[in-house]
Amino acid sequence: MSTPSPVSERPSPPSSPIEDLFDAARPVGSYVRIEPTLGSAIWARFVEPFTAGREPVARSISLSSELSTEELFAGVPEHLIRLDSASANHRLVLIEAGSFTALIQQTQGHSMVTVLAPTHAEVQVAVAQVSEWFPAPTRVDDAVPVDFWQSGSRMYTTTRAIDAPTWDDVAHHYPGEVGEQLDAVMRMTIDQPVGRVLLWHGRPGTGKTSAIRTLARAWRDQARFQVVLDPESAFAGSTALMQMLLAENAEDNERWRILVIEDADPLVAADGNTRTLSRLLNVGD
Asked: Which of 42-56, 111-125, 138-152 bottoms out in mean pLDDT, i.e. has the lowest?
């Protein structure tokens, strides 16, 4: 009887430094296929303490989009930076501070930082510490910073400074009962911890959007306005909705957040999706 000859195996090619970094960060038993790029390697190292359960609490906060890269990272302690990857329009910086881990992301029109910590109390302390690293934007009297929520692989915001008139400048465009009701809203102080749903309706061209801009300026010391660009996607499931509700902003965590949903007819129509409408109403409870 002949003995089968051994089958020779071709040696595996040597791994690249990026692959070594990615493999070192991958939790045991994880078989998710991600191309070994610098960005994915940094992400893998960042999420490892989260998936391993050492830092299971995460918080994300938006940063000022009005700052240059140099201005944004000027206050970040260099001795805490472990990995730093930058391209033409994207930068990832991994922070490992011992008591928490943070990932700073800067893209065109949007900057944010995600913080990981072992407990809810520790993540709040970490968020406060990280927030001190980043300067607040310069205030322009005629402009109001407005966040625009968009849907992709996850919900994210882009911030823009929007020109907004004062109520005294435009009040004459809203005569009669409408003007009286808007005047009361413009001068309202948000002093109770309750949700509100305000439904503004009217024919196209009657000034609804202009009134929202004016309200954003009138309330800018007590609230931050956030426009939901794709409300059907945002309210279709709980994941996207929770991302919006739990997001924090390093510039003004003390202010209220106003979610603006234009063209909300599909959400509130009598023949619309009742589950989507229910989620919208629950946000205001």
From this structure: 138-152
